[in-house]
Amino acid sequence: MKDRDRISNLEELIADMLLRLDRLEDGQVRLENGQARLEIGQARLENGQERLENGQEQLEDGYKHTSSKLDRMEGLMGKLIENQMELSDRQGGFQEALLDIIKVIRKNSTDIEVIKDTMVTKDTLAHFMEAMMNRFDRFDARFEGIEQDIDILKLR
Predict the structure, then answer these.
(1) Residue 1 in 3-state DSSP?
(2) Rounded Cα–Cα distance for residues 113 and 5 (Å)
(3) How far is CA 101 from the centre of its chain?
(4) Phi, psi of 120 (to 5 degrees)
(5) In which band, very low, low, confident or very high, does the pLDDT at 116 lie, cut at 50, 70 and 90?
(6) How far apart, in whole angstroms, are the C-alpha atoms of residue 141 and residue 153?
(7) How many CA within 13 A on the CB side of residue 52?
(8) Which pTM does this prediction carry?
(9) Residue range 27-55, pLDDT digits in tens
């Protein structure tokens, strides 16, 4: 009986070992599956990191582009301010010239009224015409001066 007991013990040991081997194989398969999933996850992380790096480069390029545009806009704003100041100066000159012209026209109007009231003879009419021509000549000379001032301002 001893042999049978030994054989039966051996069979139990072998069965127990086979069960343990099955469990080990099952555990190894699960470990391999877990390792494969881990490698896939690691590949996804690396891919995500590459995309993040590309996104960061794109953000940096966008920042540089935006920064250069802002610099250009600042330059253009400076030029715009200069042009606006120059236009204000010109407008002041034009207003002064226009006021001078209005004064001359008003003076001519009053002179014409006075001459109309006092004109009696051909001699006065001749003097009146001569005075008007002189005044128009002065007005033309003044207007030419204003045009020269305008041309000078345009050249600036």
Answers:
(1) coil
(2) 154
(3) 44
(4) -130, -45
(5) confident
(6) 18
(7) 6
(8) 0.38
(9) 999 999 999 999 999 999 999 999 999 99
What does DSSP assign to residue 82?
H
Gap between the Cα atoms of 56 and 63, Å rounded: 10
Q: Residues with Cβ < 8 Å from 85, sequence gap 6 or more? A: none
- Residues composing the chain: 156
CA dihedral 18, 19, 24, 25 (to 10 degrees): 70
pLDDT of residue 39: 94
Which tokens go with 123? 């001699």
**Token pair for 107:** 């003076």
Cα–Cα distance, 95 to 104 (Å, whole number): 14
% of residues, the chain, pLDDT over 90: 46
Average pLDDT (136-147) is: 88
Backbone angles phi, psi at 56, to 5 degrees: -65, -40
Residues 6+ apart with CB under 8 A from 93: 149, 150, 153
Token pair in block for residue 150: 């305008």
Domain residue spans of the chain: 2-155
- Mean pLDDT score, 95-119: 84
Distance of CA 109 to the CA centre of its chain: 55
